[in-house]
# Entry
Amino acid sequence: MVTVVVTTYNPTPDAPRFKYATRCIEAFDEYLTPRPINIHLTDDGSPDTQPLMRMVATHRISVTTGNHNGIGASLNRALKHVGSEPWMYTTDDWLLTESLDLELPLWLLGPEVGYDLVRLGPIHPNLDCRTKFTAGHGWWLDVDSRYGFAFATRPFLASPSLVQKIGPFDEGMNAYDTERQYSNRCAGNILVAAINLAGPWEHIGEFEVGDRDVAAAAFPDGKGAS
# Structure
C-alpha cells in the first residue's frame, strides 16, 4: 500500500496553508488510484493544530507534528510511519486535477526495473532524459540524475531505497535549501524516472512559506535554541 506524505506548515492561525492541504487531500480521494492508499499529513510545528485534528476526523488521515525545524524535519518524522513500502510525496499546495494511476510508477520502482524515484510531474527544465517504452506498461522518461534538479520536492513516488542510499533529509533549513541540498546528494547516486512533463497538477495559492528562515521563525526573539 502506498502512503501519500503531505508536508504542511501554517505559520499563523489565519494563514491558508491548512485549507490548501484540505483541497489536496480531497483531490487524492477523487483522482488517485489504485486504492487503497494511506494519507499522512506531517506538520512543521504550526502554532494552532486544532484544524489538523478536525482533518483527521473528517478525512481519515494520520498526522504528525513537532518542533518547527523545517520541511526536512517534517519528512523525517513522516518516514518513520512509511515503513518498507513505496511512498508518494507532495507539498500542501500541489493540487491533483485529473486521474493519476500509480500502476506504471509502482512497476518502475519494482525489482523488474529498479528505479529509486519516479517523478509524477511537473518536471524541471534542463534535465537530460531518454524516452523509454515497454509493451504492457507504456512510455516514461529515464532521467540522468547527475544533472539539474533530477530530485525535487515536486510530486514524486519513491522506493525505500531512496533514503537507504541518500540518508535522511537535512533539518533546520528553509524549503528551498533543503531541496537543493538533497538534490545535490542524489546527483549520480539514484535512478530517476518521470511519467509527466507538466500535469496533472496545479500549484495553488499565493501564500508562500518555502523561503522562511526556520531559525528566525522558531526563535523570533533572536536568542536561538538553548
